[in-house]
Each structure stands twice: as structure tokens, then as C-alpha cells.
Specification:
The structure is a single chain. The strands form 4 sheets. This protein has a 22-stranded antiparallel β-barrel. Strands 4-5 form a two-stranded antiparallel sheet. The chain contains 2 helices and 28 strands. The protein starts with a helix and ends with a strand. It is mainly beta. It has helices spanning about 1-30, 350-355, and strands at about 105-110, 115-120, 130-140, 145, 150, 155-170, 170-185, 205-220, 225-240, 245-260, 260-275, 280-295, 300-310, 315-325, 335-345, 370-380, 385-405, 415-435, 440-450, 465-475, 480-485, 490, 500-505, 505-515, 520-530, 535-540, 540-545, 550-555. About 5% of the residues lie in helices and about 55% in strands. It has one domain (about 105-555): Beta Barrel (Maltoporin, Chain A), CATH 2.40.170.20. It is elongated, with a radius of gyration of 48 Å.
């Protein structure tokens, strides 16, 4: 053990001597060498990628064992006590049907001693028949104060009676009606510059209308069938001076869906015969073929009117093209359209009396030819609840008539007509808003510019008229309706040649209606007319009633 330790010490001493010698020699060798070391970048230590062995161990089993066994199945029947029960057919539950009332009675009374009544009687729901009776009365015993502060005999009485019925089949329907109307009034308006006192019996007038009609119409649900609508009407008209008019009107329309378009035609015939004063007859025949084609983005319509107009011994023919095009610029929101149209307006005695009842008895008025109506515009919706329609039209009408005070009498309480060929430029705007199920609004504005050839102005016709309406339903208990009408200044033709036109002034009329539903069968109503109490003139020398009020009730039976 001592020898081994001694040997180790000697080896360590020898090794230390060798290392000391090497260090001394290296230090001596560096004393004569000068070197400059330039460091290009800091030292970046890195570890080289290790060489990985990608071989995976695998085990190969050389022993294969195939199982072998046998089995048998012993069938055993399964006993079940389940019995099949039939399922009843499903039925659609019908929506509850609201109760219908076969009739209603409305009675009321207003200022100017104005009684009012309506009675309507109808049958209940039936899949084949419907029919009823309608009666109405409105009269006034009040008198209107004229410009000379005299009260005129302005009493009137309107009565209406109508019977109607309808039979509905699977492919068509047949309806009929027969009625009687009477209108009594006075020629109470006269030129107050003359010292005149009118006797009531001398200015009384009475219109009576009677007639009936039949209508036969298809009700096909399949568009491949031929659709038709045929009607025949007879109307009898008579005034207090025994001036009579017989009128027969026939209308027929046929159309059919063929190859993605609808082709149709209309044929109409009107015959009017006046007896006693004018003894004139007028026959007008019209034939109007057309076709219509549309899809979701656009719609086009084209056709024409042809008229045969026989007035006494005089015969005229008219031709009016018809065409229109509309397309969706923004679907259901912006729809521009453009079109051209025209028609012949038949001015028979009873229709003119409807426009102005204060005409000269038996007045004859020529038919008006609206030979050109070019229009364009845009319609659509601002939102889902607000719709609009803006339209510009240029209309040329020949033999357009205007009412003027009859110059055969100096008091001017009756009207005749003058004619002119007129060019009219019209601007129309309409906006409707259904704010909710309870509240709705409507605004309409019309402005017309007339170019006259013979007459100085379009007598009794305004250039501007506006209407604003609003309706509100408060929980189906209180219903409120308000209307505001504005009619711009109008002018009446003077008697004298050198006299200026008579300005009738503008009209502003505000009306309000209220209804309170006490129950489903009983309600009360209140109507306020001409709330601003303006004594305006609808026709020259004819002021209308001022503020009036009417109240009453409605009872359903």
C-alpha cells in the first residue's frame, strides 16, 4: 500500500512539472508577438441538431390462432297482449266566426232642422245567396242668408231606396239591383244687385231617378279559363218640368291568360234619349282591345279605344291609343311609370245634373273628347307603412264644358255651359300613412294650369285643391275622423262683356266626426261640419250652410 501511494505522488509531481514548463515556454514565446483581434459580432452559442433514430420497434407475431366453435338457436315464440286501435282522422279547427247582424238603423238630427236616417237589411251568411234593402233620408228645412242679408229658400230633401241580390255559383255569379232616388231643392241663389223676391213654388225643382241592372260575372279560380263580366242597366231620369231621359248602358269585358300574358277586350254601348224639351238621342259604341304582361320587376299594358258617336243625324269616330309601362327601380319602394290614354266623356242630362243641380232644365251638353292624356310619375313606399304617388300629366280636351250663369235671365239663379278646347298641365301628389292599426293619415294635393283658346278662365274650376284626412281608433270604443279641405280661388263669368271676372275666393272647410261604441250593437255619433263657419260659394250666387252639427245613434239588429 505504501508503494502504491508513493508511485501516485511521483506521477502527480511529474505532471505538474511538465505543465509548469509548458506555461513558461508559452509565456516566453508570446513576448515577441503582437496581434490585433477584431470582433465582428457577439458570440452566439448554438447547439447542433442531434441525430435522431427514426426506426420504431415492431413486433411480428408468427403464431396465428383461428377460433373454432359451434352453437344452436332454440326458437321460442314471444307472447304479446298488444291490441291495435284505429286512429281518428285529424280535423282542422275552424277559426271562430264573428256574429253577423242582419240589419242596422241609424238616426240623427242636426242644425238647420236636418233629420237623417239610414236603414240597411241583409241576409246572414250563405254560400250561394245574398241580398238586402237599403233606405236613406237626409233633408234640411233651414234657410241660408244671402249677401243682401235676406234668407233664401234653401231647403232640400234627398231620398234613396235600393233592393239588391246576388247568386253565387262555382264558376260565375249573377247579381241584380233596382232602386229609386229623389232629390228636391230650390234655385235659391240669385244676383243680389237686383231687388228681387223669389216665390218658393217658382224656384222649386225635383229630380227623380229610377232603374235597375243585371250583372253576370265569372268566378274562375284557374287563370286558364276565359274570364267575363257582362252587365246591362236601365236608368230613367225626370225633373219637375217633366223633362225625361231614358238611358240604357251595356258593358262587357273578356280576358284570358295566354303564354304568360293576359289578352282582353271590352265592348260597351250607351244610348240616351231626352224627350219633351230637347228631343235628342245619343248612341255611343266603344270597342277596346288590350293586352297586359308583367313579372316581379315590370309591367306593360297596350291597347286602344275606338268610339262611334251618333248624336241625332251627326256621326263621329274617335281613336285613342292606350299604353303604360312601369318597373321597379327599387322593388316595392320606388316604381316609376309612364303612359298615354284618352276617352270620350258622355255628357247626358242626368250626369250633368249630378255635377251641378242648378242647371237650366233640359240643358243639352255636348260630349267631351279627351283625346290625349300623357302622364308620368313615380309611386311606391317610403317605409312599410308610408306610401306615395307623384304624377305629372298633360291633357288635351276638345269641347270641354264650363258652367256659367244663364244669361237668359237677369237674376242668374240657373246655369248653362260654354265650351272650349283646353290644354291642362296637372301636378298631383299623394301620401298615405298607416301609422298603426289605430292611426292613419292621408294627404293629397292637386295643381292644374289651364291653357284656354276662347274663354278667359276655366269658370268655376280651381287651380289648386288639397285634402288632409286623419283617423284614430281608441280601443275600438272611440273613433275619430278629421278632414280639412282647401279649394283655391275660382272665377265666374260676368254678365257684361267689359266686366272683370267674378272672384269666388278660396274655400277652407274643416270637418270632424266622432263615434262612441257603447256595445257591439249600439253606438252614438257626432258630426261637426264647416267648423270655421265660412260662408263660401260653391257656385256663383249660391252660398252654402255655415257651421252645422249632427248627432245620433246606430243600432244593429
Amino acid at each position: 500500500m505504501k508503494d502504491i501511494g508513493y508511485m501516485i505522488k511521483r506521477k502527480l509531481s511529474f505532471a505538474a512539472s511538465i505543465m509548469l514548463l509548458l506555461l513558461t515556454v508559452g509565456a516566453a514565446a508570446q513576448e515577441g508577438i503582437e496581434r490585433e483581434v477584431i470582433v465582428v459580432r457577439p458570440f452566439e452559442p448554438s447547439v447542433a441538431d442531434a441525430a435522431k433514430i427514426n426506426l420504431l420497434p415492431s413486433l411480428t407475431d408468427t403464431l396465428s390462432v383461428t377460433p373454432a366453435f359451434s352453437y344452436t338457436i332454440l326458437p321460442t315464440p314471444l307472447a304479446s297482449d298488444f291490441e291495435v286501435e284505429p286512429i281518428t282522422a285529424a280535423r282542422m279547427s275552424a277559426e271562430p266566426v264573428s256574429k253577423l247582424y242582419t240589419s242596422y238603423l241609424r238616426l240623427g238630427l242636426g242644425s238647420y232642422i236636418t233629420p237623417y236616417g239610414e236603414l240597411s237589411i241583409n241576409n246572414l251568411r250563405h254560400n250561394r245567396y245574398s241580398g238586402g234593402l237599403f233606405l236613406k233620408h237626409l233633408s234640411s228645412q233651414g234657410r241660408i242668408r244671402l249677401d243682401n242679408d235676406e234668407k233664401a229658400h234653401s231647403q232640400f230633401s234627398d231620398n234613396e231606396m235600393l233592393f239588391y241580390g246576388k247568386r253565387m255559383g262555382r264558376r260565375n255569379s249573377l247579381s241584380a239591383d233596382i232602386g229609386l232616388n229623389t232629390n228636391g231643392f230650390h234655385y235659391y241663389g240669385y244676383n243680389t244687385d237686383f231687388d228681387t223676391l223669389l216665390v218658393q213654388d217658382d224656384i222649386r225643382q225635383q229630380f227623380m231617378r229610377a232603374g235597375g241592372g243585371l250583372r253576370f260575372k265569372s268566378t274562375h279560380t284557374d287563370s286558364s279559363y276565359l274570364n267575363y263580366d257582362v252587365s246591362l242597366n236601365y236608368r230613367y231620369f225626370q225633373d219637375r218640368l217633366d223633362v225625361q231621359e231614358h238611358g240604357v248602358s251595356f258593358r262587357s269585358t273578356f280576358d284570358k291568360f295566354i303564354r304568360s300574358q293576359v289578352i282582353g277586350a271590352e265592348f260597351a254601348a250607351d244610348y240616351f234619349n231626352n224627350v219633351n224639351l230637347t228631343d235628342t238621342s245619343n248612341l255611343v259604341l266603344r270597342f277596346s282591345p288590350w293586352f297586359n304582361k308583367a313579372d316581379e320587376e315590370w309591367e306593360v299594358f297596350a291597347g286602344f279605344h275606338t268610339y262611334y258617336d251618333q248624336l241625332g243625324e251627326e256621326t263621329k269616330l274617335y281613336f285613342h291609343p292606350r299604353a303604360s309601362l312601369q318597373f321597379s327601380l327599387i322593388r316595392n319602394f320606388v316604381i316609376p311609370y309612364v303612359g298615354i290614354d284618352g276617352n270620350l266623356n258622355i255628357n247626358h242630362y242626368s250626369s250633368v245634373a249630378d255635377d251641378n243641380p242648378f242647371i237650366v232644365p233640359g240643358l243639352f251638353v255636348r260630349n267631351s273628347d279627351r283625346n290625349m292624356d300623357i302622364h308620368t310619375g313615380v309611386k311606391g313606399n317610403f317605409t312599410r307603412d308610408i306610401s306615395f304617388n307623384f304624377r305629372v300629366s298633360y291633357v288635351v280636351t276638345d269641347d270641354m264644358h264650363f258652367f256659367v250663369n244663364d244669361s237668359s235671365g237677369i237674376i242668374g239663379n240657373q246655369f248653362s255651359v260654354v265650351y272650349d278646347d283646353v290644354e291642362r298641365l296637372s301636378y298631383t301628389g299623394e301620401i298615405g300613412a298607416d301609422i298603426s292599426d289605430r292611426f292613419n293619415l292621408l294627404a293629397r294635393v292637386n295643381y292644374n294650369s289651364y291653357e284656354m283658346k276662347l274663354q278667359e278662365r276655366p269658370w268655376h274650376v280651381p287651380s289648386l285643391d288639397m285634402k288632409f284626412s286623419a283617423g284614430y281608433n281608441l280601443r275600438d270604443k272611440i273613433l275619430i275622423n278629421a278632414d280639412v279641405f282647401y279649394i283655391g280661388s275660382r272665377y265666374a263669368k260676368p254678365f257684361g262683356v267689359d266686366e272683370p271676372p267674378i272672384e269666388l275666393g278660396s274655400i277652407t272647410d274643416f270637418n270632424l266626426g266622432l263615434e262612441y261604441r257603447y256595445s257591439r250593437i249600439l253606438s252614438g255619433f257626432l258630426k261637426l261640419n264647416n267648423i270655421s263657419n265660412v260662408k263660401y260659394h260653391k257656385w256663383n250666387n249660391y252660398p252654402v250652410q255655415g257651421f252645422s252639427i249632427r248627432a245620433g245613434f246606430t243600432y244593429s239588429m
